[in-house]
Amino acid sequence: MTRRLRLTAAAAALLVCAGCATPAPDYQSIWSTTTTPNPTPTSSEPPVPFSQYLAGVGVQGEAVALDDLTELSVTLVRPAGWSAYRNENLAPQTEGIAKNNTYPTATVLVFRLDGGFDVPAAIRRANADALLSPGFTKLNESFDDFDGFPSAMIEGSYFGPSEPGSTPPRLHSYSRIVIPVTPDFQRYLVQLTITGLADQAVADSADIEEIISGFEVTVR
């Protein structure tokens, strides 16, 4: 599995129509982490937010800031020109960076999990939040392990928030959830989310590639 992004002239041409009232262009050739995606079939049940699923099987989570982690190391690379970013809608323990304090953004959130659960079954439902996004179009999905841990990755485009009466922007999102476990069987949930404007995908691709390629989750 490779974490590199692939950028093609054909994909760049597709971006011209990102704001048109036509089907969303396929950005898979721009932000792709696997040469041949190998998705695992998900449950036939309607998707529910992942936090809701975990709560339903008796799992609770406590957000932990990256600087307070003692059993894990999580790496979020900051490309040149990016700075710390804070979103009031996210937990205060979220580590966020942004380019010029706007899109694209990248965030990492870590939860210490309490409660036993079937990790493979949970991973198959980990991409539900993306699937529930307004007008979501899936471009790529994988359930391959990441850094040796169970993981789910999904990327696609969806309609972002907008002011009443205005056209919602088309956003491109990459999400990876990793569930590492320590030698004493303490489980964590680590999520990397990268969001950018779809019509800026080519211009931002080098920075996004740097973040994806540099993202690491290791047990200390």
Structure description:
This protein has 220 residues and is an alpha+beta fold. The protein has one domain: Mog1/PsbP, alpha/beta/alpha sandwich (Protein Transport Mog1p, Chain A), CATH 3.40.1000.10. It is built from five helices and ten strands. The strands form two sheets. Strands 1, 3, 4, 5, 6, 7, 8 and 9 form an eight-stranded antiparallel β-sheet that branches. The protein has a two-stranded antiparallel ribbon with strand order 2-10. The radius of gyration is 17 Å and the shape is globular.
Could you say which structural class the secondary elements and strand pairing correspond to? alpha+beta
Shape: globular
Stretches where pLDDT is under 50 for at least 5 consecutive residues are: 4-42
Helix content: 10-25%
By CATH, the architecture is named: 3-Layer(aba) Sandwich
Secondary-structure element order, N to C = HHEEEEEHHEEEEHE
Radius of gyration over C-alpha positions, nearest whole angstrom: 17 Å
Mean pLDDT: 83
Give the termini separation.
Answer: 23 Å
CATH fold-level name? Protein Transport Mog1p, Chain A
Number of domains: 1
Strand content range? 25-35%
Q: Please, what is the CATH homologous superfamily? A: Mog1/PsbP, alpha/beta/alpha sandwich
Which CATH C-level class is it?
Alpha Beta
Main sheet specs: 8 strands, antiparallel
Counted by DSSP, the helix tally is: 5
Please give the number of β-strands: 10
Core attributes:
5 helices, single chain, 220 residues, Protein Transport Mog1p, Chain A, 31% strand, globular, 10 strands, eight-stranded antiparallel sheet, two-stranded antiparallel sheet, alpha+beta
